[in-house]
Each structure stands twice: as structure tokens, then as C-alpha cells.
Amino acid sequence: MLPGTSPIGELADVDPRAIPSDLLQSGKPVVLRGLVANWPMVQASRGPAEASVAYLRGFERADAPPVVATVGPPEIGGRFFYNDDLSGFNFRQEHVPLGVALKTLLKYAQQDTSPAIYIGSTTIDTWLPGFRERNDLTIPGAEPLASIWIGNRTRIAAHQDVPDNLACVVAGRRRVTLFPPDQLRNLYIGPLDHTPAGQPISLVDFAAPDYERFPRFREAQAHALTAVLEPGDAVLIPSLWWHHMEALEDFNVLVNYWWRQTPAWMDTPMNALMLAIMTVRDLPPEQRANWEDVFRHYVFQPGEATADHIPEGARRVLSPLDETQARSLRARLLQRLNR
């Protein structure tokens, strides 16, 4: 556990059938103790790991495609990361049936030394049909993507996601450490386009921070929030909050819900960032400053001066976008990019 962190705020007795919308849209993280304690999966997890595995396998789809299992040698200490020069990674990925992965986790749970095994972001409805009929939450005003994460003692480096995230521990325990989005510069984020699992990650090892190499990380720690989640507990991780996840038992299962507070047709801002790096970042300083003003005018601080002088019917992309306009704009961008 990192020193100098503060606890995440907590609530208890929140009705899982009626989670308040203002809580989910607050933009603030919160631990919801016991939110899913009544799920049958959580009840099964209070016994030996074999009971949890048996419960999961009761929903296993016989003709399901293999899951992606991330596997690292014992010496990585559960930390899935890069190799020494960041040219590759310290793990491999295997495609195996879910049942085989679960049996393997049980086998290694009985041994003192074991490889790190992680089955990440597996869509529940695809691999475990029927699970959500007995174990599910309602997210008001959203149709979230529900995923399951299964593994042993693993550490997932601090990263951020665009969607809001409600993560529910249903077997084992997890320590979650959060940082506000504005701690970007203090977390020493690695490459944007070469990542262990899709999202850029902090290069700091939270188990042994190297303050000589990463001195600003001390400032990040001063803003860090943390909690240990027991089976049945959940944590709300708002959009773009950095989160480090550590599984603390030999067998752990987490169910999470992702959703965005924007229409489904809106693209991810990460694409805009990558395009800006390609087209704006390396301009001469004066030109870059001019474009900063352009972005401020049209994107970050639009107001009356932006488009009020244009007849409403002629504003096109300067008017509020809808799905049809977004589709047309995307096609135009693709045509330009592929020229």
C-alpha cells in the first residue's frame, strides 16, 4: 500500500435496484459497501475457491470462443508490465477455454509459487449467458457493458478509462488506488501507442516507487485515494480517474459496468488526442499557440462569438451534433486521412 494516501469516501445501504443517478453522475469516486452482497456469486465466494469456480462454470457456454489469458512468470510478482527497455512486455497471452483457465487458477491456488494469471475484460453475456439474470445491477439511464475479470494475485498499473466505471468485487479482495485526472504529469505515463492492455499506464511501481527516477510521484501520492474492497463491495470510478488495481487473494473475480454520459455515436476523445499529436504538437511554437486559440474558441470555450453570427440552418458542425451529422463528419475525416 502506498504511504500518504487518503481513504475513498464510502456509502453503505445503497439499494442496488435504485442507485441514485446524481451519485453516478457526480464525477466523484465512492466505495459502495455491500452493494452486491446479496448476489449468489458473492455468496458462493464466501466458501472455498472451488465453490466460486463451480458457480461460474454453471453458466459456461459450451460453444464459447476461447478467452484471452494473460500469463506472467512468478518473478514479476503479479505486476503485468513492460520489459526492461519498454520494447515489449513481461507476460504472454494465451487463448484458452474459460473452463481450462478456471481449472488452472485452482491448481496454482494450492501452490506457494505460481505464475500470474489474468483473464481481463471478458464480456459476461458472451461467455457466461444467464449469469446476469441472477447477478446484475441497473445503471439508471444507461445500457452499460458488463464484463468479468478473473485472476490470482495480480497488479494492474494505474491507467484511466473514458467511460464511467462501477467495479464490483464478487470473489477475493482488491485494493484500489485512485488519482484525479489532473495528476497526469505526476504519474509518469508510458507510451500512448504501445501499451500492455490498450490504455496508457503509469511507469511507477506502486510496490516500490523509485522517487529518484519519478520525483513528481510524491505529489501524486498526496492526492491518492485508496480502499480495500471485500466481496460484495463496489467502487465508482468516474471517467478519466486514474486507477491502480491489486488483487489480494489466490482467486479473485470482479464484475464491472462501463457506460458513457454521452450518446453512443460520439467518438472517443483519445482519437482527437492522437490526431492532435500528429498534426499540431510539432508545429512551430507561434503556429501551435495560434491553434491553441482556435481549439479554445471552437472546442473548449465555445460561446456566442463562436457561431451566433451564422444563420442557424447554416452552422453545420458548429451546431449541436447529432448521429447523422457525426456519421457524415466521420466519413469526411476518413476521406481526408486516407488521401
Please characterize this protein's 3D structure.
There is one protein chain. The radius of gyration is 22 Å and the shape is globular. It starts with 5 loop residues before the first strand and ends with a helix. Strand 2 (10-12), helix 1 and strand 3 form a beta-alpha-beta unit. Strands 2-3-13-10-15-8-7-4-6 form a nine-stranded mixed beta sheet. The chain has a six-stranded mixed beta sheet with strand order 1-12-11-14-9-5. It has helices at residues 21-24, 40-45, 49-57, 98-109, 124-127, 131-134, 217-222, 269-279, 285-300, 304-307, 323-337; strands spanning 6-7, 10-12, 30-33, 67-72, 79-80, 92-96, 116-123, 145-151, 155-159, 164-171, 174-179, 225-229, 234-237, 242-247, 252-259. The longest helix has 16 residues, at 285-300. The protein is of the alpha+beta class. The protein folds into two domains: 6-259, Jelly Rolls, CATH 2.60.120; 269-337, no CATH class.
* SS-derived structural category: alpha+beta
What does the oligomeric state look like here?
A: single chain
CATH C-level label of the largest domain? Mainly Beta
Unreliable segments of 5+ consecutive residues: none
Strand segment count: 15
Protein name: Cupin-like domain-containing protein
Domain JmjC: 117-274
InterPro entries: Cupin_8, JmjC_dom, RmlC-like_jellyroll
Organism: Lysobacter arenosi
In a nutshell, what does this entry contain?
With 339 residues, this protein is an alpha+beta fold. The protein has 11 helices and 15 strands.
Question: What order do the helices and strands come in, and which of them pair?
Answer:
Blueprint: E1 6-7, E2 10-12, H1 21-24, E3 30-33, H2 40-45, H3 49-57, E4 67-72, E5 79-80, E6 92-96, H4 98-109, E7 116-123, H5 124-127, H6 131-134, E8 145-151, E9 155-159, E10 164-171, E11 174-179, H7 217-222, E12 225-229, E13 234-237, E14 242-247, E15 252-259, H8 269-279, H9 285-300, H10 304-307, H11 323-337
Parallel strand pairs: 1-12, 2-3, 5-9
Antiparallel strand pairs: 3-13, 4-6, 4-7, 7-8, 8-15, 9-14, 10-13, 10-15, 11-12, 11-14
Helix pairs in contact: 3-4
